[in-house]
Write a structure and sequence with these properties.
Largest sheet of chain A: none
Helix content of chain A: over 70%
Radius of gyration of chain A: 20 Å
CATH superfamily of the largest domain in chain A: Tetracycline Repressor, domain 2
Oligomer: homodimer
CATH topology of the largest domain in chain A: Tetracycline Repressor, domain 2
InterPro entries (chains A, B): Homeodomain-like_sf (IPR009057), HTH-type_TetR-like_transc_reg (IPR050109), HTH_TetR (IPR001647), Tet_transcr_reg_TetR-rel_C_sf (IPR036271), TetR_C (IPR011075)
CATH class of the largest domain in chain A: Mainly Alpha
Protein name (chains A, B): TetR/AcrR family transcriptional regulator
CATH architecture of the largest domain in chain A: Orthogonal Bundle
Number of helices of chain A: 11
Strand content of chain A: under 5%
Organism (chains A, B): Streptomyces bullii
Order of helices and strands of chain A: HHHHHHHHHHH
Number of strands of chain A: 0
Number of domains of chain A: 2
Distance between the termini of chain A: 52 Å
Shape of chain A: elongated
Keywords (chains A, B): DNA-binding, Transcription, Transcription regulation
């Protein structure tokens, strides 16, 4: 983020070295937060524990974040962006090649890969488990981490409606659940294996319907 | 269960009063197990705690069950059967009126009612949360509590395939996820409100597909 015009002094004080040190601390804090929540769960993760593991003072964390939930939230956003970059994808984009089936298959295959990424799996499960029994936290994390992705599906389905590839009368926010939720439930509850073939099948069933045409 | 022919003495010793006392203890243990897991979560629920709350000795629990997971499993099966009886439904049955859309709408509406039942909600959430981070327990509870219900959908969809109402080439075990999983995810992750209108919509989208016909 560019420094605002009104704060030239603060901007001048931030030397390249200080920025590099900050960036290093920030990354150590993210790694510590994700590692700790994966190992001990959300309830037992504390700001003190994150600070100790990251090798920084507690006050360094409180300078940037107001709570452990805030730290974890940003750590997850950062992790998702990293994973997308490494996979050669722009984060927060669903392609629009004009073929809605192909585009949905591609994005769901990428999601399968992310769900199987060990860096992502354990901390995500810890957070999801807490969200099931802690409604307030569940709602915050869904709003910040899940809904932004779901809105991309809404946009892509709206484009498909304009192109005549999806029925004009369907509500895209519900429609997307026909392929997103089965994958989520298999991952969360171990109700079945997840694979590219599986998500391709979901896209076929959802678009074409279970009833004969 | 009828006493086996080879054990007439044991059978004779079980007076109506003893049976009634046993049944009362069993129900107190189920209630204690469900209440405790809802309040403190799965990890902190112990056989000792269940016994104390039920007003029975620990050895009474170990006479009938081998672990807290076993007690909880049976307590949930009992709760689901009770809820079905009270709703005037036979447990473990999906109706077959010949109209697959109507039958799916009916069973999903009943599921919505059960998910909103306060007796069911807190203990179910506690168990589901543990299952997300404890793969072994998650798999056992899915196999014992969830899969038997899912098999009913498989059977109903197979009948619909024979009647020509569902495509012959779909895999019923995947197809059922188009309406079951969205409801499960909304309930587990607070990703949206659940209602009869919502599940009716899922059945429409799943059977007819998102693409225009």
């Amino acid at each position: 983020m560019a420094a605002p015009e009104s704060a030239p002094a603060a901007s001048a004080r931030t030397t390249p070295d200080a920025t590099r040190r900050s960036e290093k601390s920030r990354r150590a804090i993210y790694d510590a937060a994700l590692g700790l929540v994966a190992e001990v769960g959300y309830a037992k993760t504390t700001v003190e524990g994150i600070a100790a593991r990251a090798g920084v003072g507690k006050q360094t964390i409180y300078r940037w974040w107001s709570s452990k939930a805030d730290v974890l939230l940003e750590a997850f956003l950062d992790l998702s962006e990293q994973a997308a970059r490494e996979a050669g994808q722009a984060p927060y984009v669903i392609p629009d090649t004009g073929d809605v089936a192909a585009d949905l298959r591609a994005v769901l295959r990428a999601t399968v890969d992310q769900l199987r990424d060990p860096r992502f799996e354990a901390p995500s499960r810890a957070l999801a488990a807490e969200g099931v029994v802690n409604e307030q936290l569940g709602r915050v994390f869904v709003a910040k981490l899940l809904e932004p992705s779901l809105r991309l599906y809404v946009d892509r389905l709206r484009a498909a409606q304009r192109a005549g590839q999806v029925r004009a009368d369907v509500d895209p926010r519900i429609a997307l659940e026909l392929f997103v939720s089965p994958l989520a439930q298999r991952w969360l509850q171990y109700t079945g294996p997840i694979s590219h073939e599986y998500t391709d099948t979901l896209v076929d069933y959802a678009l074409n319907g279970l009833a004969p045409r």
